[in-house]
Amino acid sequence: MAQLKYILPLALGALVLLGWQLAVRHLDVPVYVLPAPSDIARAFVTEMPSLVSATLTTLRIVVIAFILATVSGIGLAILFSQSRIIEYALFPYAVILQVTPVVAIAPLLIIWVHYENIDLALLILAWIVAFFPIVASTTLGLRSADFNLVDLFRLHGAGRWQILWRLRLPCALPYLLGAMKISGGLALIGTIVAEFAAGTGTATGLGWLITESENRLHTATTFAALAILAALGIGIFFALSALEWALLHHWHESALRKQE
Amino acid sequence: MTRVALSDAGKVFDNGTLALEHINLEITDGEFVSLLGPSGCGKSTVLRMIAGLLAPTTGSVHFPEGRPEIGFVFQDPTLMPWTNVLANARLALDLKGVARGEADARAGAALARVGLKGFEKAYPRELSGGMRMRASIARALAASPKLLLMDEPFAALDELTRHTLNDDLLKLWAEDGMTIVFVTHSVFESAFLSSRVVVMTPRPGRISKDVPLPSPRGRESGYRTTPAFTRAAATLSAGLAEAMGRAA
Question: Which of A48, A138, B56, B69 counts the most CB atoms within 10 A of its CB?
Answer without folding.
Answer: A138
